[in-house]
Amino acid sequence: MTTGRQNAAVAGGNPISWTVENDGSRLRVVDSIERRQLTFTPEEGGRLSVADVAREWFVPVDRAATLGVSTLWLPTTWDVFLRAPDGTLLADIPAGETGAVTDKAVAEVTTAPIKIYFASRGGLRVSTVDGQTRLEGVGGTPLVLGARSPHEQPARTITVPPTPEGYMRGVSEFGAALKTASPERTFPTLRGYPPEIQIGSELDIPQGPQRPETGVTLRLPRTVETVFAAAPLAYFLGAEIEPGRPPRLELDGDRTVPIDSFGATTPEALHRLLVHTFTLDCVARTEGQYPMELSARRTIEAAGVRLDWEAIYEKPLADRLAAFLSVDLQTVEAAAPDWRLTADIPETDDSGPLLPHLANELADIRTYPADHYPSESRERASTGQPSVSEQVNDATDTLLRGADPRPPGGESGAVNDRVPRSVEDASATPDVFRIRRADSILQVYAGNGVPIGANKITEESYLRHLSETPDETAALRVVVVCNDTEMLAEASVEEIYSSAPLLSVTGELRTNLTVDSLRDLLQSDIDLIHYIGHVSERGLSCADGHLDIGDLDAVSAQLFILNGCRSFRQGEKLVENGALAGVGTLQNVNNQVATEMGKKIAQLLQHGWPLAGALSLLRFDAIAGQEYTVLGDGTAELVSADSGVPACCLVEPTPDGEYRVSIDTYLTRVRHLGTIFRPSFGEDDVYHLAGGEVSQWVADETELRELFERENAPVQLRRERSSTKLSLRWSHDLAEDMSPLSDGLTERMSPSSPLSDSSSKETTETD
User: Fold this and answer.
1) Of 643, 656, 559, residue with least CA distance to 608
2) Which of 503, 564, 566, 559 minimizes the C-alpha distance to 534?
3) Is 688 in contact with 677 (CB distance < 8 Å)?
4) Among 291, 364, 433, 585, which is least packed, fewest CB within 10 Å?
């Protein structure tokens, strides 16, 4: 057991704190709001003596301290930028490589879960030994550490009347949150959080209008649908919204561009314009403080686009936008990252307060009439024909539906179901419906009912995250509750949660809790509760009855997993009563499937995947994942990924014994649109815009094993995506045994096989 002392911990509400442990042989840096932790160790025999210090940095930091040592070991291999004190880039050092600057320098650790900087007046040297990055002050000069939390909060609350004109005035102030109008605002930490919106009878803008003078105006029809759809674009462009027809973009008052030319409808055109300008600004920023090789720039220039990027970088925002509009939309869309979020929200007053949160995520906002959600099933009723995506959904429902669920490949009755077999399937419940598909990584829904294929959000779930305050407790508390002895196999997830190598996680296992004990647990300070047991309309099964979450006055547990049949009703009540977010099930699940799903969810959370990301990956992995849904803020994480961006390795064996490899990246609340990602294997000199599949290369078995040994990450075989069984693997396991990569390959790749290349491609496209 470690002993430690707090050093300048959370004084004045600072989210960053230091903890020196093991008599000065380890430093733990904690972002107590975002629940992120990092550990650093000095050279063998060295002793840390951390003391806060005031120092000027080229970027904002929340806290800085001298470390009393000249050499420090980072916990893994990370990309490092070496910069001059004014921020000028001097060296770009990929993970696993070596570099040095022999004058005053600052090291920016680009992929760490917390924004970390190290400074030394004598220069810095970066090297890698045995899978760890070593940072050394040249000539023995001491290191200074700077750290910043990515946590953002709205600076103001604006009151608007619930009219199109009122929303126009409120959304026009979103651009006031931008920290810069330069292309660097494509980095999520330089955009700031838009002001909150509340509904009232009169307009009230505290401290008056503060929107930056960007010279950009959106003229839009007086409709709620159009203004809601425009909110993310107005935020990113710092634009003012004014009434006007036809919809148009005005630049500096003397240049006018029709908006509807960008899409079939005005909302679609507004989103495509956002994707277009955002992607090109990401390319333009390569001429600034981040002069890197970006794959998006390669793609655009390979298509014949010839722009003077250096000159464009220096232009005011309106002039840059004018230059961007000369580029073909489809050319840019081929270079754009997979968009992170599509949001379906009703055209009601309740949706107004959601706008700043969705704009902050640059969401594609789709509205629907307050009393009618146009789900695919309802659209089919009017046309008489199912869509392609609905045909896939129907097949999924056929497999999963029924009072007698079976494990994949198993026989009826081989395992016990987690509820009595007479319980009706969730998809037959009137307020459970299939969401309209969208071309984005994640979908969310606000309104009545339970959507299949999307996470249900509320304003309260966003506000709970924003209201987080620093907590002196560095350790994360995870409690696994197993209230049925037949399900003890899943209780091993307690060991999974406790095994995070860079974190202080307290994993606890409780069995056969009573109603009172479970109630007390849910009302105590817990980061995650993982419940394993039966769930019914009466509530969560306990040793002496059932606990209905609706009977609780409040819930203090932050995150939850309810791994029992049809648990989404109790999950909804957890979010309504105070939980930030969690996972529930839509229909019956049998023990075998639920046990495997519970373990895989735990593994993904422990490796930094947010709740929605974990479920998204598992839905790709197996049809069984369709049974699970996220309630509340799906961006919530237990911990953060070691590489900054959660990623899955996709592998496809080739007939000649090699492997096609790509990295599928998942955007998070902090590391979302604009984040850059460089794989540790393949084209090391090329950066990618995170979001979707990036970087594809061919590797032999030796090279692939080397990749798997570097970092423990989820791995999927492309041929197994959307299969009926859970097939997600982990790279460290595959490094020891590569045989699963080629098992059954000959049969699967034969022309008559249902899992041949053409079949696999079709399945992937329809998911």
Assistant:
1) 643
2) 564
3) yes
4) 291
Band of pLDDT at residue 486, cut at 50, 70 and 90: confident
Match 């209780």 to its residue by tokens: 491
The pLDDT value given to residue 32: 75
549 with 435: CB under 8 angstroms?
no
Rounded Cα distance, 507 and 514, in Å: 20
Interatomic CA distance for residues 253 and 386, integer angstroms: 47
Buried b (16+ CB within 10 A) or exposed e, 360-384: bbbbbbbbbeeeebebbeeeeeeee
Alpha helices in 116-202 (DSSP H): 164-172
pTM, two decimal places: 0.80
The span from the CA of 164 to the CA of 220, in Å, is 10
> C-alpha angle 320/192/79, rounded to 5°?
80
Residues 6 or more apart whose CB falls under 8 angstroms from that of 604 comprise 613, 614, 617, 618, 646, 714
In this structure, which topology does domain 415-432+471-632 adopt according to CATH? Rossmann fold (3.40.50)
pLDDT digits (tens, 9 = 90+) for 94-151: 877 899 999 999 999 887 778 899 999 999 999 988 778 899 999 999 999 999 887 6
Domains of the chain by residue range: 4-148, 157-368, 415-432+471-632, 647-766
DSSP assignment string, 336-377: SPPP-EEEEEESSGGGGGGHHHHHHTT-EEEEE-TT----HH
Q: How far, in Å, CA of 468 to CA of 465, rounded?
A: 5
Q: List Cβ neighbours of 743 (8 Å cut-off, separation of 6 or more).
A: none
Instruction: Establish whether the linkage from the previous residue to 246 is cis, with ω within 30° of 0.
Output: yes
Torsion of CA 492, 498, 502, 505, to 10 degrees: 150
pLDDT tens for residues 206-228? Answer: 989 999 999 999 999 999 999 99
User: Contact, 90 vs 82, CB < 8 A?
Assistant: yes
CB 38 within 8 A of CB 75: yes
Pair of tokens at residue 596: 């495997």
| C-beta of residue 233 within 8 angstroms of C-beta of residue 218 | yes
Consecutive H or E run containing 577: none
Report residue 246 as tokens: 């036809």
